[in-house]
Amino acid sequence: ESENSAMSDVYSFGIILFEMYSRKDPYDGEDHREVLRLVADPIFNKRPEVPESCPSLVASIMKECLDRTPGSRPTFEQLDLRLKDLSVEHVEPGKMNFSMQDKKLIQAGRNEKLLFDVFPQHIAEAIRDGRKVDPESREIVTIFFSDIVGFTNISSKLSALQVSDMLDRLYIRFDELSRIHDVFKVETIGDAYMAVTNLVKNQPDHAKRIAMFSIDALCAANDTLINTNDPSMGVVNIRVGFHSGPVVANVVGSRNPRYCLFGDTVNTASRMESNSIINRIQCSRRAYNLVHRQYPEISIRPRGKIHIKGKGEMRTYWINEERTPSCNVSVSSNESSQTGLSGTRKRDKYNIEILTRVKEIAE
């Protein structure tokens, strides 16, 4: 904790600017402990979004006041000079009564932003322009899969809204990590997260990127509360797996188009995840060879040969050191093969027995 200073007052001024133009509290409806942690986190650097009605010159001042580095924030003397130079037109909120044409343009802009968030740029441009998207082949990519251990059991103890909130908080962190490591997020299906490298752009270190993303994603999951209103439920535990190989990518459907990957590489990557165990990262031998070459200092150890459904015997590897589960997880006898050497995938029916896990998030 640090004492109040002139720079912290400048930060508060930035928050006041947000409140003036948004007419609401920052982070309204979010868990204050999670907000405090993400605000203080130098990687996530959480800040309120600039309100749509905020003029660009004021928005620039607001962003500078909320800069992560106190020394980079303007002084009040500098702010005073800059604000005096602004006219009424520069500081009044943007028009709230839009014409029908304005509303159409705004909505079109939002739709285009969403399009470019979901699809690779060249695919998004083709869809926007109404052009046909042709299948694309890549000789080598690295595909990541993760899912939440005990998701079915967790879901039975939470409301649908609480499950949605847990996944939202987790995937916000995964998405930020995907930007940091330049990993392309393919999709999320329930508790499963799929990402890939060396697909939408050439990345010679694609296996290294997925390995680093996997390690950080595991840490992020283990730092995400299952239920912010009941910390005793513990934090999220995941399984992770990845594999490298060729794929074909294509847009499927027209009404709700999806960007899909096809090929045995996808199946094998999924098997690496489903045959992994709690809080561990498993990769195939081919992925291991690439990671070892691209990131020789990483900690990897062989798991040995395991039976993979549809593949037979495969030699696999553990990435990084073993992490202690955040809570005791007992596996029923008819599911013991899930964490053993069998490749038969069964949905999670873990019985979570919480001992103690009350974690302070606010710094």
TrEMBL record:
Main subcellular location of this protein, as a coarse class: membrane
Pfam families: Guanylate_cyc, PK_Tyr_Ser-Thr
Topology relative to the membrane: Single-pass membrane protein
Keyword terms of this UniProt record: cGMP biosynthesis, Lyase, Membrane, Nucleotide-binding, Transmembrane, Transmembrane helix
All residue ranges annotated as the Guanylate cyclase domain in the record: 142-273
Alphabetized InterPro entries for the sequence: A/G_cyclase, Cyclic_nucleotide_synthase, Kinase-like_dom_sf, Nucleotide_cyclase, Prot_kinase_dom, Ser-Thr/Tyr_kinase_cat_dom
Keyword RNA-binding: no
Descriptive protein name: guanylate cyclase
Organism listed in the record: Proboscia inermis
